[in-house]
Design brief:
single chain, 577 residues, Rossmann fold, 3 domains, 19 helices, 8 strands
Length: 577
């Protein structure tokens, strides 16, 4: 397809998904171009509806632009040949955009500027000149066939003190297929109008510069030199001069050569522009602008996504090292004295049991008393459960866990945080609730201990039932069994989970005979001990994992979803069709 050939018109459905994704655009700020993602998204959110709107219309838009008091409304009225837009010595006179369009046009449907309410009024209903409202686009409908394919817009001042007025003027400049910059001798070099003029010329948009209220000695060459117009191609820039007029301004201006040149400029662009229709040219140009922006934002998003993947891998490595450090700290807390303590404790338990010399009931009572004195108690007693948890807390202090989490957090903020404080990820990583507090760690460790004890109680209940079902008890009772398991639990939370199996085997060995009950109980105790060690280690590491997940979530909620690139790429393909 050639550059100036017509393409299938873009419609609202073509851009709906892209607009949805652009409204939700976000990025963590891991690359240098992150700021351009949001800026480009905001620009596309306004530009894409304009592109679709323009391709659904078959009229040429001409916007009159300029600064305060330059006479835009006077020129507008002269073009319409009616005093439609208010003029006068009070400035500014035009508060909102006023359009002049044929009745057969339907320019209000799908109007792309959401901040303006497009309102139509019939020409015959106009009783006086209009100033417009800054939240409204007032369209005057006529039936002049010569202007059937034309919409002329009188815009608010580009140098207005009201930001809404400046925004309206700039948006209609973007909507226009051709622009008329109206200025005056004292204001033609003002910066705000000049910058917009320069932009539209760079966009290859047909422009007409009309200098109003000029003295007899001002020449076109002088204006061109002041505005550095020598670099602008002659075929897209014309300069018209209008004299200073007192009295019937519009009538006098209508007879000026420069004004007639302006009318010819406008009417010629309704028909043909250098042998080519103007509308396809502008549509293709708009598509090229949209494609450039979409291509740029896709590239930037993909860079952010790649950086996010690398960031996530680095975070996982830091968390893995932190978990390893925590296990090392826990192991160091289990000293050789702890090993002797466990062996002696188990020996004391068995020595207090007189090997079936007395009836079991008496033996049970004899065993329970010293076990209670030693703090090894019936798990059904709620108060005793609290005491066990208290001892577990003492055996497994929060300090190693706190040290690990603090070290991980320091490394994340040092190695993974973006340098710029204005980046979203920098702020997110430092939000309240991301990093574990000391109180949270204590509460989490307490919950893990309660989970261990609950699991042990359930396991013990089943195990004691199984032993009871064996005809010969041997040396085991439920009280001795519970006492051993509590010792195992305290050993686990005390950091002995890596040496527990070997330690328990040597501690139980002297008391295990070949009897079925002893062998069964010894096997179940060691199996229970191994599972306790696994669960405790898993619980500790789950806290490190949760801290990693909190930091990862900071990134995840800022990273553009994968569908972003797919949807924008699909729109690229549609624009190229």
């Amino acid at each position: 397809m050639g550059k100036n050939e017509s393409k299938a018109p873009l419609i609202e459905n073509d851009i709906r998904e892209a607009l949805r994704i652009l409204e939700q655009i976000r990025c963590p700020g891991l690359t240098q171009g992150f700021a351009d993602i949001k800026l480009t998204a905001e620009w596309l959110l306004e530009f894409l509806p304009l592109v679709a709107y323009k391709e659904g219309q078959s009229v040429v838009w001409v916007a009159l632009l300029g600064g305060t008091g330059t006479g835009k409304s006077t020129i507008f009225n002269a073009l319409c040949r009616l005093p439609l837009s208010a003029t006068g010595i009070e400035r500014p006179m035009t508060s909102g955009a006023i359009g002049y369009a044929h009745k057969d046009t339907n320019i209000t449907q799908g109007f792309p500027f959401f901040f303006l309410n497009a309102v139509s009024v019939n020409l015959e209903d106009i009783k006086h000149s209009l100033a417009g409202n800054n939240d409204e686009f007032l369209i005057i409908l006529h039936n002049i066939n010569q202007y059937k394919q034309l919409v002329i817009v009188d815009t608010p001042d580009l140098d207005s003190l009201e930001p809404e007025n400046r925004r309206t003027a700039e948006k209609f400049s973007s909507l226009a297929d051709a622009v008329v910059f109206v200025t005056s001798q004292e204001k033609y070099a003002d910066d705000a109008p000049y910058q917009l003029l320069k932009r539209e010329v760079e966009y290859k948009k047909p422009c007409f510069l009309l200098v109003n209220k000029t003295s007899k000695d001002l020449t076109r060459d002088e204006i061109a030199a002041t505005l550095q117009l020598k670099e602008i191609p002659d075929n897209i820039m014309e300069i018209g001069l209008l004299p200073y007029v007192i009295g019937e301004t519009e009538k006098v201006i209508s007879n000026c050569e420069s004004f007639n040149s302006l009318r010819e400029f406008i009417l010629s662009h309704i028909q043909l522009q250098q042998g080519m229709s103007l509308l396809p040219q502008r549509r293709n140009f708009n598509r090229e602008k949209a494609l450039d922006a979409i291509g740029n934002i896709v590239r930037l998003i993909m860079e952010e996504q790649k950086a996010s993947d690398n960031w996530e891998k680095s975070l996982a490595a830091l968390a893995e090292n932190a978990a390893s450090d925590l296990i090392s700290l826990e192991e160091k807390r289990f000293a050789s004295q702890s090993r002797e303590y466990i062996k002696n404790k188990i020996q004391m338990l068995f020595q207090r049991y007189d090997l079936l010399a007395k009836p079991r009931k008496v033996i049970r009572e004899i065993i329970l008393l010293p076990l209670k004195m030693l703090g090894i108690i019936d798990p059904k007693n709620e108060k005793s459960r609290e005491e066990i948890l208290a001892r577990m807390k003492e055996k497994g202090p929060v300090a190693p866990l706190r040290e690990t989490i603090e070290s991980l957090s320091r490394e994340v903020l040092r190695d993974l945080s973006p340098a710029g404080e204005e980046t979203p990820l920098y702020r997110a990583l430092r939000e309240k609730g991301v990093r574990f507090t000391g109180e949270e760690l204590e509460e989490r460790l307490s919950r893990e201990n309660q989970k261990l004890l609950t699991w042990l109680e359930e396991t013990f209940s089943k195990l004691s039932r199984d032993i009871t079902g064996v005809k010969k008890w041997g040396i085991y009772t439920t009280s001795i069994l519970w006492g051993i398991l509590i010792l195992v639990l305290e050993t686990v939370v005390g950091g002995g989970f890596t040496v527990l199996d070997a330690l328990l085997g040597s501690a139980l060995a002297p008391f295990v005979t070949k009897g079925a009950t002893e062998l069964f109980a010894s096997h179940e105790i060691r199996k229970t001990a191994q599972e306790l060690a696994r669960l405790h280690k898993e619980g500790l590491l789950s806290i490190v994992e949760e801290q990693r997940a909190r930091y990862w979530q900071c990134l995840a909620r800022l990273t553009p979803p994968k569908e972003t690139v797919e949807i924008l790429t699909a729109l690229e393909e549609r624009l190229n069709q």
